[in-house]
């Protein structure tokens, strides 16, 4: 596992002074990822929250070469850059061991950019794709994405007397990427910084495409106080709403087993996007359904670990 005193010796590749909201989980995730990455590294970033708050001309928080690309093309751009790099290495025109990291939000990963991501991974391009998952299209007005959880209020899944928020459960992007037989895949969140940076190291060392799914609470979109970002990240793991695990060399490893598995409502109650479920008639049934879903997914993950876990 990574040690804090070792990380502090690394250069800050994502500088302060950007324009992220107070308590933005996405900014914390990007900083942690780049602290774990050793230079030289090249970044690829589609349109989204990260692009908006980190690179408004003429300023940039990125202390690495960063390519801004269209919303749907982060993975295809990374594939093109990685291919050009391999050509230059083969031709003897480059000798550095360059790493490539694409950063995409859940909208640009689960939805708009998924076709490009699926294709790049199938072609086995060697790069790390980091999904900074704040569970909605926060940059454009807090619309629902396929990462938005069941029952959440967004501007396109508004909670009312008839419809209690989003009516579908979130897409399981981790299992979809594992089905692509990536070299390495992992899920984590910013509260577990040591786990996160360790997984970045494994992903960059993997012999092929790798995928990292990071939960990044959004104070604006989730409706919580900025100083509760890290707390909510930990609650997401302790309720098993967001399991902390990895898929490495064909094996499942659960990295965080809660000492006491908390009810999912402990994660939901501090958030404005779920407030209606605790004040309106019928909300208890929605909370119960989300709890059932979380329990079922956690039990399935445990079975996968038993069948495909470490010896």
UniProtKB/TrEMBL annotation:
GO terms for molecular function: oxidoreductase activity; thiamine pyrophosphate binding. SUPFAM superfamilies: Thiamin diphosphate-binding fold (THDP-binding). Keywords: Oxidoreductase, Pyruvate. InterPro entries: PorB-like, THDP-binding, TPP_enzyme_TPP-bd. Residues 47-214 form the Thiamine pyrophosphate enzyme TPP-binding domain. Pfam families: TPP_enzyme_C (PF02775). PANTHER family: PYRUVATE SYNTHASE SUBUNIT PORB (PTHR42897). This is Pyruvate ferredoxin oxidoreductase. It comes from candidate division WOR-3 bacterium.
